[in-house]
């Protein structure tokens, strides 16, 4: 039997449902939400299973009749831990280095699209924002300087578009991967990178890895990529083809064609660009 | 003893896990299905698609009635779903998936208002009118305090039980019952003042 109160409550529900009806999300927003979720759930890797403890080892170390090797094991473990801490401290980046990348807009508007939320952040001249892996950076009317951590940066020229593929500190090193989807970029690596460090700038058809250098990478509308080294050496890989481009040399990578390293022409666009670059970073 | 009866009137249109008589210390009744939860934790794309299909539109409606415009509702829904992905491994399954998702949405919409401090006073007013609604009723509803609107929406529009509403808004069961009781009285007075028929 339904009481008056139940009836009133049901009426209230009906009232809300009919007078405040369902709202429908736009198709565009729905697509954006699904794309965001695809990216977010891709990070959910299966968790590794716990490995079973090696009982025999512990019994051997701790359970021997004469008291075992426990003191020795504990001493060795402590010494090992101290050594690990010392090595980690020595290999860690200098204090004050940003944990995340930072983008600085210069001379015009720059748009950053967040990987996690899909939200769009518009930066005006001199504005900065933190970047995380997956974020997209679109240098529209201005250039943008991306500082990853001490001594490394990439400048996207106006009209360039890039995605920060990864940014992490693992295995005692720092790893940065940036993909230039279109337009021109200048990357600078001032410090000599270690074995665990990785700094990779790629375009749709080539990937570069560097160990301390300055270079220009331009992703061109026809699908090709120009890599010109200003200092140091850049390793450029296109499919199975790989070349080293030393300072003063450049390579024009065209999909399906072998890469050839050639001299940078003094009369090319690179000469004034390099001068601009040196002025920007106060390079003597 | 009207408050006692509230617990038995929970089964509203397809919402899972509705309430039973509970003591004042509320715990949401239903638990998340462990199989589904495991698939979500493992990043099973189909499981997440199912969650999106089932709860995405409802969460959007809920957020649309809480936030100023469609763009903000869409952004906060994005943030809510990403928060769900990030926290699924720490979610213990102690409440239903619906309660969990609405709790995240509640926190994200609160974050939205905190971020927009310059317009925070608007949270005490009604957002721009969504589409297709009864404007007079909506205006009467808009005269209620924000907490009352929120509780009534969850209870009567989204069909949650009292203890689930309590979990979502972070209040005790008794406090939520009192809030709902006061809110119903306020709504009745507001609609009568506008001459809106029952």
SSE diagram, text form:
The complex is a heterodimer of chains A (284) and B (198).
Chain A: H1 4-19, H2 27-42, H3 55-62, H4 70-91, E1 101-106, E2 110-113, E3 120-123, E4 128-131, E5 136-139, E6 143-149, E7 152-156, E8 161-170, E9 173-189, E10 198-202, E11 207-210, E12 214-219, E13 225-231, E14 233-238, E15 241-246, E16 249-253, E17 261-263, H5 270-280
Parallel strand pairs in A: 9-10
Antiparallel strand pairs in A: 1-4, 1-6, 2-3, 2-5, 5-8, 6-7, 7-9, 8-9, 9-12, 10-11, 11-14, 12-13, 13-16, 14-15, 16-17
Chain B: H1 2-6, H2 34-41, H3 45-64, H4 70-87, H5 97-115, H6 135-142, H7 146-157, H8 162-169, H9 173-193
Helix pairs in contact in B: 3-4, 4-5, 5-8, 6-9, 7-9, 8-9
Distinctive features:
heterodimer; A: 284 residues; alpha+beta; 17-stranded mixed sheet; B: 198 residues; mainly alpha; 9 helices; 0% strand; disordered N terminus
Shape descriptor of chain A reads extended
Report helical residue fraction of chain B: 55-70%
Helix content, binned percent of chain A: 25-40%
Unreliable parts of chain B: 1-28, 120-125
The number of strands of chain A is 17
| Main beta-sheet strand count, sense and barrel state of chain B | none
Regarding quaternary structure, how should these chains be classified? Answer: heterodimer
Q: Output the number of helix runs of chain B.
A: 9
Along the chain, the helix and strand elements of chain B come as HHHHHHHHH
Largest interface: A-B, 40 and 48 residues
Number of beta-strand segments of chain B: 0
In percent terms, what proportion of residues of chain A is strand?
35-45%
Summing up helix and strand content along with how strands pair, one would put the structural category of chain A as alpha+beta
Distance between the termini of chain A: 91 Å
N-to-C SSE series of chain A?
Answer: HHHHEEEEEEEEEEEEEEEEEH
Overall average pLDDT of chain B: 78
């Amino acid at each position: 039997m339904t009481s008056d109160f139940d009836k009133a409550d049901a009426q209230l529900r009906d009232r809300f449902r009919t007078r405040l009806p369902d709202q429908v999300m736009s198709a565009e927003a729905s697509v954006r939400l699904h794309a965001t979720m695809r990216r977010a759930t891709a990070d959910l890797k299966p968790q590794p299973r716990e490995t079973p403890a090696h009982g025999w080892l512990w019994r051997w170390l701790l359970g021997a009749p004469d008291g075992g090797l426990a003191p020795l094991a504990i001493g060795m473990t402590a010494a090992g831990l101290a050594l690990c801490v010392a090595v980690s401290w020595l290999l860690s980046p200098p204090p004050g280095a940003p944990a995340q990348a930072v983008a600085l807009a210069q001379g015009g508007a720059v748009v950053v699209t967040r990987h996690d939320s899909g939200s769009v952040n518009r930066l005006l001249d001199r504005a900065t924002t933190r970047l995380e892996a997956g974020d997209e950076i679109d240098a529209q009317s201005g250039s943008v300087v991306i500082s990853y951590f001490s001594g490394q940066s990439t400048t996207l020229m106006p009209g360039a578009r890039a995605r920060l593929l990864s940014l992490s500190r693992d295995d005692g090193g720092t790893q940065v991967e940036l993909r230039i989807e279109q337009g021109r970029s200048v990357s600078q690596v001032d410090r000599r990178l270690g074995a665990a460090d990785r700094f990779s700038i790629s375009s749709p058809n080539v990937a570069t890895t560097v160990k301390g250098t300055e270079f220009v990478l331009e992703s061109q509308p026809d699908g090709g990529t120009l890599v010109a080294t200003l200092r140091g050496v850049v390793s450029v890989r296109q499919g199975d083809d790989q070349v080293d481009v030393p300072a003063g040399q450049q390579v024009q990578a065209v999909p399906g064609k072998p890469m050839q390293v050639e001299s940078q022409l003094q009369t090319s666009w690179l000469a004034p660009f390099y001068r601009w670059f040196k002025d920007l970073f106060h390079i003597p | 003893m009207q408050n006692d009866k509230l617990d038995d009137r929970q089964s509203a249109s397809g919402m899972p896990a509705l309430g039973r008589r509970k003591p004042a210390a509320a715990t949401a009744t239903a638990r998340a299905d462990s199989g589904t939860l495991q698939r979500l934790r493992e990043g099973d794309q189909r499981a997440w698609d199912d969650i999106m299909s089932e709860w995405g539109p409802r969460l959007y409606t809920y957020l649309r009635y809480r936030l100023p415009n469609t763009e903000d509702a869409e952004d906060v829904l994005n943030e809510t779903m990403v928060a769900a992905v990030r926290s699924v491994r720490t979610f213990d399954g102690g409440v239903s998936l619906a309660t969990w998702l609405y709790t995240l949405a509640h926190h994200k919409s609160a974050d939205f208002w905190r971020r927009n401090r310059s317009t925070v006073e608007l949270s005490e007013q009604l957002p721009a009118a969504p589409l297709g609604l009864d404007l007079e009723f909506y205006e009467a509803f808009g005269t209620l305090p924000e907490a009352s609107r929120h509780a009534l929406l969850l209870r009567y529009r989204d069909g949650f039980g009292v203890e689930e509403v309590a979990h979502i808004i972070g209040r005790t069961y008794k406090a939520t019952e009192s809030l709902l009781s006061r809110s119903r009285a306020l709504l009745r007075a507001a609609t009568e003042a506008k001459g809106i028929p029952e």
